[in-house]
Amino acid sequence: MPRFDLSPADLRVYRPEVAEPADFDEFWRATLAESRALAEVPRLTRVDAGLVTVEVYDVEFSGFGGDPVGGWFVVPAGAAASAPLPAIVEFNGYGGGRGLPHERLAWASAGYAYFLMDTRGQGSVWGTGGTTPDPHGTGPSTPGFMTRGILDPATYYYRRVFTDAVLAIDAVRSLAQVDVDRVSVSGGSQGGGIAIAAAGLSEGLVGAMPEVPFLCHFERAVGLTDRDPYQEIVRYLSVHRDAAATAFETLSYFDGVNFAARATAPALFSVALMDPVCPPSTVFAARNRWGADAAADAGAPVADIVEYAFNEHEGGAGAHWPRQAAWLAERLAERLAERPGA
Predict the structure, then answer these.
(1) On the chain, which terminus has fewer CB atoms closer than 10 Å, C or N?
(2) Which of 284, 305, 280 is nearest to 3 (CA)?
(3) Does residue 139 lie within any of the structural domains?
(4) Each residue of 82-124: pLDDT tens digit?
(5) Closest alpha carbon to 193 in 209, 223, 216, 170
(6) Chain mean position to CA 165
(7) Is residue 335 part of a domain?
(8) Residues 282, 16: Cα–Cα separation, whole Å
(9) Is 156 within a domain?
(10) For residue 83, what are the β-bridge partners?
């Protein structure tokens, strides 16, 4: 697909004003407090996945409203006898589930504790499936997840998913194999959008690594691309013609640009300049606002970005992981250097 968005030079300085509700922080403070009050200790079950260099655990932790959410926790073999490890919490792309543990071994093979969160209600579009239901009903919606509960932020689908993500970080930090001060988040597409939200709602992360992130700058995205999942919103509003103002007000509580502004950890983004699914301007809108609301004495965290000039939504694909690994190693070294007595 040819380039259809702003020029690369304009993208790098693109910093739009995105609608932000006056009660954004209070909405999320109350949402997280309600679900944290219902959280139970995560349950781990050792799984024989036919792997000898790593240990695999099936995890169930408490998500939104105390709902059980699944995930895979994978650590290097013998991790229980070692010092606590840095951890990666990864979120999945749209429509996919956590799949099978042997499908994602890179981070554990590199010496990290790795947690992959299942996305509630998803897992039946690609990959090898998911196992976490979404027990909450919504009003009328288009097929897919983008318009479920869209007329009220309290019922919107991603309120539950973003809460799951923050509580997944809480759960991982409670595990004996994990160094609580060296936890990072990552994900591609939807997973990148979830990682941005989790970074904006969590304290003390080492880093965030959103790849070609979805769920950013909704109002621009739905008018710029003709691809799903954003087109789910367009189809909904083409039928519910009087609902646009209400729908976009709801979406403002879930816009990655608003979460990005609240982030306190450094970030490594990726963007594909020919991406028709997550247009590059929507990615840069979040990246260019990263940490904008940071305390003046702390300064805004760094937000690096890797541009893939001739790629679509696959972005850097497998070529991007070595960049992430090198970038994260630097952030971990910086965190260790900050410790007393280092």
Answers:
(1) C
(2) 280
(3) no
(4) 899 999 999 999 999 999 999 999 999 999 999 999 999 999 9
(5) 216
(6) 7
(7) no
(8) 10
(9) no
(10) none
Quote the Cα angle for 153-120-251, to 5°: 25
CATH number for position 13: 3.40.50.1820
Of 105, 112, 55, 66, nearest to 87 by C-alpha is 112
Vertex 296: Cα angle to 211 and 29 (nearest 5): 65
> Any idea which residues carry the catalytic annotation?
189, 275, 313
- Mean pLDDT (the chain) is 96
Res 297: pLDDT: 60
Instruction: Please report, for residues 94, 127, 165, 227, the alpha-carbon distance to residue 103 in angstroms, rounded to integers and kept in the order given.
Output: 17, 10, 21, 27
| Residue whose structure tokens are 């597409």 | 189
Residue 68: inside a domain: yes
Domain that includes residue 14, residue range: 8-134+162-217+256-330
Here the tokens at position 336 are 């260790």
> Residue 177: phi, psi to the nearest 5?
-80, -5
265-323 pLDDT, tens digit per residue, is 999 999 999 999 999 999 999 999 999 997 656 677 999 999 999 999 999 999 999 99
Count of C-beta atoms within a 10 Å radius of residue 80: 9
- Give me 128's structure tokens: 């090898």
Distance CA 258, CA 244 (A): 20
Structurally, the chain folds into a number of domains equal to 1
Per-residue pLDDT of 159-173, as tens digits, reads 999 999 999 999 999
CA 217 vs CA 185, 232, 284: distances in Å: 21, 15, 10
What is the pTM assigned to this prediction? 0.97
**Count of residues making up the chain:** 342
pLDDT tens per residue, range 197-207: 999 999 999 99
pLDDT of residue 139: 86
CB neighbours of residue 336 within 10 Å: 14
